[in-house]
Specification:
Blueprint (H helix, E strand, L loop, with lengths): L8 E5 L6 H10 L3 E5 L1 H4 L4 H9 L3 E2 L13 E4 L8 H9 L2 E4 H10 L4 E5 L4 H15 L4 E4 L10 E3 L7 E4 L14 E4 L9 H13 L3 E5 L3 H10 L2 E5 L5 E3 L2 E3 L8 H16 L7 H5 L10 E5 L5 E5 L4 H12 L5 E6 L3 H18 L5 E5 L14 H7 L7 E3 L2 H11 L5 E6 L5 H12 L1
Parallel strand pairs: 1-2, 1-4, 2-3, 4-5, 6-9, 6-10, 7-9, 10-11, 11-12, 16-20, 17-18, 17-20, 18-19
Antiparallel strand pairs: 7-8, 12-13, 13-14, 15-16
């Protein structure tokens, strides 16, 4: 890869994170000097991620601020990082340029030729993963970056192509930064209540769409379709026979992952792939071999008794409903576990989940709330998953697990031959290990 005109020195705070990790690797691949820190490394966790970064020539340093010195050119941080951490204080005191992670990503996308931003409250990680798979397997020299790795890979998603070529990225609305993008091509895959109320989300997606050179919307999502009509945008959809209807083209797409939502994901990915130069003839065959994206209905394994264990990133109402429906389509009985990923999000979701879960769970299904994941900070810890479980009708038999060990015990006591055990939740880096622990306990 061509070295930059002037190599800069970057520091990435929270470099093990799914959003920060691939950005750090991309900046390193483009010839810059990179160092980074992460709280999990200091705690002795995520050692495989740290080792992988070192192999790329990225220096891993303690997250105490000592390595943030005036010779750092750019200090990149997640929007979740508090302003008073030792590193943030050190960067501020040293006069180092501080760049929020979404701003750096938007900068790279906007400079792409073309730059493509894939947005939506659900499915964007899978769509981006499918585009990465199509680009890599077809030999198309595009760079694709996202927050979830392909199954079998590690870290976040990164497929690297030459600087100055097509750059496709997952653009997230969760922190309000979607409006920072001005890509050549934008995708609005769907809009549903997540992280914010619908009025706020509509405004954010509308602003994003108006800043795109061209925008495509998912006509199967009423909210995205309405936005498309307002802007006169082109659309894509899955028709009644399961065919992907794209602008000027219809393709028969099949993917190994279950659920209609994955066909919608495939339609969006096919559209983007065509825009960056992947041949239409190659797309269906390649998608039929798509390995999946980590923690997006990822099959951990099937026990000798025929119990499937599935790990999924679902963390809002629409995503829980899609994951549970996909699990129900392949099993007579589903054991679903959900761990909310913070006290604020849990409060936000509480009324929706109180109404949703009794409606989508079948009488034979079982559900368990795992205790809310606490990532640290000063947030009020005034809610428990025990409260969420008590919201549900007694007849539903909702269980509560105080920790991951209790989740494993509950699954071991409840699972029967032929069941699917579905574990759902976001942000907690220990969730993949939990899914594997459940599988081991049932094997």
């Amino acid at each position: 890869m061509t070295a930059p005109a002037r190599a800069l020195r970057y520091h990435f705070s929270g470099i093990a994170g799914a959003g920060v990790n691939p950005l750090a690797r991309l900046v390193r691949a483009r010839g810059h000097r990179v160092q980074g820190s992460d709280r999990s490394f200091d705690q002795g966790k995520n050692t495989a991620v740290a080792d992988a970064l070192r192999r790329l020539g990225i220096e891993v340093v303690p997250q105490d601020g000592a390595a943030v010195t005036p010779d750092i050119d750019r200090f990149v941080y997640s929007t979740a990082v508090e302003d008073d951490t030792p590193e943030m204080r050190a960067a501020r005191d040293a006069g180092v340029e501080r760049v929020p992670r979404p701003a750096l990503l938007a900068e790279l996308v906007d400079a792409g030729a073309p730059g493509v931003a894939i947005s939506g409250t659900s499915g964007k990680s899978t769509v981006t993963g499918m585009v990465a798979w199509l680009a890599r397997e077809s030999g198309r020299p595009a760079t694709v970056i996202g927050g979830a790795a392909l199954v079998g890979d590690s870290g976040g998603l990164l497929v690297t192509g030459p600087a100055g070529g097509s750059l496709v990225a997952e653009a997230c609305e969760s922190d309000g930064t979607l409006t920072g993008y001005h890509p050549s091509i934008g995708i609005v895959h769907n809009i549903s209540r997540d992280h914010a109320e619908m009025a706020s989300l509509r405004a954010q997606f509308s602003s994003f769409a108006r800043q795109c050179g061209r925008v495509f919307v998912n006509l199967d999502c009423p909210e995205a379709a309405a936005l498309g009509r307002d802007l006169g945008a082109s659309g894509y959809r899955i028709d009644g026979s399961g065919l992907a209807v794209l602008p000027g083209l219809t393709l028969a797409l099949r993917v190994p992952q279950p659920g209609r939502h994955n066909l919608e994901n495939a339609a969006a990915a096919a559209l983007v792939a065509l825009e960056i130069g992947v041949g239409a003839g190659a797309v269906p065959a390649l998608l039929s071999r798509f390995p999946g994206v980590a923690r997006r209905f990822e099959l951990i394994g099937t026990t000798p008794a025929g119990i499937r264990v599935v790990d999924d990133y679902a963390h809002n109402g629409a995503k829980l409903a899609a994951a549970i429906a996909a699990a129900q389509s392949g099993a007579d009985r589903v054991l679903a576990v959900f761990q909310p990923h913070g006290f604020g999000p849990a409060r936000f979701l509480r009324p929706e989940l109180r109404e949703l879960l009794p409606r989508i769970l079948r009488p034979q299904d079982r559900f368990c709330y795992a205790e809310i994941y606490y990532a640290g900070g000063t947030i009020a810890r005034d809610l428990s998953s025990r409260d969420l479980a008590a919201d549900l009708p007694f007849a539903l038999g909702c269980a509560y697990a105080a920790d991951h060990r209790a989740v494993v015990s509950w699954a071991r006591s409840e699972a029967r031959p032929g069941d699917t055990v579905l574990l759902m939740g976001a942000r907690d880096p220990e969730l993949p290990q939990l899914a594997r622990a459940v599988f081991t306990a049932l094997t």
